[in-house]
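re the bet — no i am not wrong, look at it urself. input seq straight from the record:
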Amino acid sequence: MAATDERKPVTVLFADLAGSTELATQRDPEHLRALLSAFFDEMRQQIEAFGGTVEKFAGDAVMAVFGVPRVNEDDAERAVRAAFAMQESLAQLNPMFEQEYGTSLVLRIGIATGDAVAASRAVNEFMVTGEVPNLAARLQAVGEGITVSETTYRLLAPRLEAERLEALSLKGFSGPITAYRARALRGTERRHVGVTGLSSPIVGRDRELAALSACLEDLRHGRGQVVSIVGEAGIGKSRLKIEQREHLHEGLRWLEGRCQSYTKSTSYAPIVQVLRGALGLGPTEAPAIARTKLRAAGRAFSGSEGAQSQGALAHLLGIDLGQGQAQVLPSDPRALQSQIVLATRALVQGLAERGPVIIAVEDLHWADSASVDLLTLLLELTDFQPIMILVTSRPDTEGDAWTFRLHAERNFGHRLTELRLAPLAVADSQRLTDHLLRVSDLPEAIRGRILARAEGNPFFLEEIIRGLIEEGVLRREGDCWTASGPPEQWTIPTTIRGMIGARIDRLPAPAKAFLQHAAVIGRTFGYGTVRALSDEPADLDRTLAHLLRVELIREFGALPERQYIFKHALTQEAAEASLLAEQRRALHGRVAQHLESTLGDGIAEQAALLAHHWAA
């Protein structure tokens, strides 16, 4: 296989037109080609809008992959959202097809998630091989609509509204297949992670809750605030925010927008959510009601620029102002952006005059530049009005979110409260486990392994527990859960693997290759050993420095040579798991050869380690 091949979690979307054979016999080939070209062009746009890669068009079918060339932690969601967008686009195209070609099209879509061997570019038309693309193709044939695999459904439950189908017997699959007919994908906030039905009060965050409560109390007394909640993925930023939002004092108004990894190129994506909340606009608001609500909010606008501000917001929110009131928008994009900024500022000021306002933006690391620029300008309002700007973000040291945090620290330090969330202490992780499972006598071997693998990350802990439940290791008995025995193999849950894989895939190619090689050595590795595996030893120090800066590894010793450790054991497991079996065996052999040549008299003491590498 090509050197770029690797194992990775992917989601495959397979779409096919129903009744295409009959269509081909009824239509002239030229008409059919024009019809399919229009269809394929629109479907490609929707797939690529959500970060998918079209692998191939075949006849009247299209196959797309989410996770190649780069994994995203929400690839399953992207695929399902693309599928709904494809269905909606086809519904809009069908009237034109009926008028011009005398027919309408029906689209069937199958979606499956799982491990596959993937190439960074198509080789002989194949980007992914394995069971996943075959399953997606079989699922699309089940019936009209969108059919998703059990793994895809589990990743999106309970937000995915879906109907479980009777067990399917599919060609090429030996056993019955569980699948779901997708109906709708609800809002973007994941209020609960882990297993449906498991819950826990927030634990280990007393200090941060107290600090955030103090900020809200200051806001109630008219003092503007800037709050930045920073932490790695899964550490509990959203849970901390939700805890405060759901216990908000009367008189405080909470407006919220969430950034998505697939909307980074969509200007003002989270700001639109904030503005819709400010105007009280529902997801399917009637145009006349939306116009009325916008005009009511227009009292915040004054002077000759009031109409321009209202027009700018109407444009941004997609509100039709009605006949005779069409907004005249500037042709210069910078002028339009300026109007949007001024209108948003005026609206927020008007709201704050009636009472304290919290503007919360989640996952700022995925924000588009225009949104970050607008939020940066809104910071100055905190000096004069009861406004809180609250953002959550990951601890990245580059990008617009980092720039925003630096600006807030340098210019609004007197308003800023930064809450950096650390991993939970062991005792708090134990409490979380007990709350989730409602049991305190979990076998120590299983409990210890859960805690060791989660390493204080609440999301990791919940997902590991969910995996054990799905494997049947943990079983419900009444209101509690009991262990049937240790798992045969501790695997990385798909959710966690996707999250870690996304970080690894964002690395420069040399750093990614280094991480995969180091993962073969083990959780800890020495400079000399990893140098022996390096394809570019001259760039080794630069690559190590980069991985240290992004906090994927840590240095823990310098004598007799530098020693490093993966920050998370699961990162090491995921990096090694991404290698093909042949690659892993070759690297383990090189590690064993290096150790034999350098251990000298200490080789007997490392017999077990050498045996591990030779046997891998």
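see?? The first strand starts at residue 6 and ends at 17. told u. also The chain is about 45% helix and 20% strand. so pay up
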